[in-house]
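Researcher: Re-running this chain for the archive, since the previous output was lost when a drive failed. Same request as before.
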Amino acid sequence: MKVAMIGGTGFVGSYITDELISHNMIPRLLIREGSESKLLQPEKCEIVYGDLSHHHDRTSVPAILEVLEGCDAVIYNVGVIREFPSKGLTYEKLHFHAAKWCIDAAKELNISRFILMSANGVKKEGTGYQNTKMLAEEYLKASGLDYTIFRPSLIFGDPRGGNRPEFCSQLKKDMLSLPIPAPNFHKGLNPFNAGNFALSPIHVKDVAKVFVKSLTEEETIKKTYHLGGETYYWKDIISIISRAYGKKKWTIPAPAFAIKTLGALLGGFPWFPITKDQITMLIEGNVCQSDGVYEMFNLIPTPFNSESLSYLKN
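Model: Regenerated structure tokens:
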């Protein structure tokens, strides 16, 4: 089976690519020139060069048709966690328009199987991130293709270098490594509400396994699945992450509106650790129940603990 992978060199994409190879499938990847070093097994991949961020419509990205040509399925796994419009990195372009170009190209080439990486908590009236992911879902559902949509909660795991943003590593670098208590965010003014939002972390290898298994599982066609592990409150997540690399981290209540204001002012700068949208989504919480998914795919989820977070010691 040959699978077109859009977004195959990023954090999650690199694991999906490896998983495809381990199932004797051929990943055909669309990658930017200069990103070849991010491929862990380039000799087992077919490579087409192209860059979605510098184009305005599908006709200006002939590489999309080229990467899909001759494939049996498409995985669209592009996600940007913050926008840098000057570099062409916007939610609207990469989550919605580029997904739409790939869906249209799949129809044109009669490739019926299409897997979309969405996100838990997507909604029409949400942040730019949530809204554009939702638009891509709706376009795919209306396309007539044999789609499967996955909506993961927080994904964790070893980013394996290559400048790949991963939540726990970023949190360690941007907030936990500083010589001050970690922010325990809360809505409103009451500090006693601090950290009472929860997330359901899922290991990147589990996500990759589910993606690849779904390619050949008929029952996953035209379905949407939420992917998450056990649920933890924010303060417990900070404590588990800190313990994983041998630290005990104190927290201090931090009103979300103050951080959002800073994020709105400074979020456009790469050095500022968090954007307004990221704070908004974080304190909404991001939990889901995936027992049925694990059963269906015959998987035992990787626990969120010091052992599975041992990469943070580096």
